[in-house]
Amino acid sequence: MKTRMLALATAATLALGAPAMAQDIDMGYNMLTGAIYNALAARNLPTDSISELSLTQIATIKSLLDSGASDSEISQRISAILEGDN
């Protein structure tokens, strides 16, 4: 009986916590894509295809921006990703 109650309590907790977790993930994704949008706009790179990028492409762009490479190298590599040459 205790095991069944524990299972029900766990299921209820997970069911109630899932929407909040999904909301946090959405907020994090929106913050990340917003930061990438700003970085691309600052480099005069196209921003219209950000919503079409995969999470892997977004993570790669973020890594490039944080890499410490030269601005021209970063811009070239990001351009290749945006053009689908990655």
Produce a short descriptive summary.
The protein contains 3 helices and no strands. It has 86 residues and is mainly α.
In one word, what is the shape?
elongated
Number of domains: 1
Euclidean distance between termini CA atoms: 56 Å
Radius of gyration: 20 Å
How much helix, percentage-wise, in residues? over 70%
Q: What's the order of the H and E elements? A: HHH
Give the number of DSSP strands.
Answer: 0
Report the biggest beta sheet as strand number plus sense, adding barrel if it closes: none
Task: Write structural notes for this entry.
The chain has one domain (2-82). Helices cover 76% and strands 0% of the residues. The protein is built from 3 helices and no strands. Helix 2 packs antiparallel against helix 3 (71-82).
Write the layout of secondary structure elements.
Layout: H1 2-42, H2 55-66, H3 71-82
Helix pairs in contact: 1-2, 2-3
What are the main properties of this structure?
86 residues
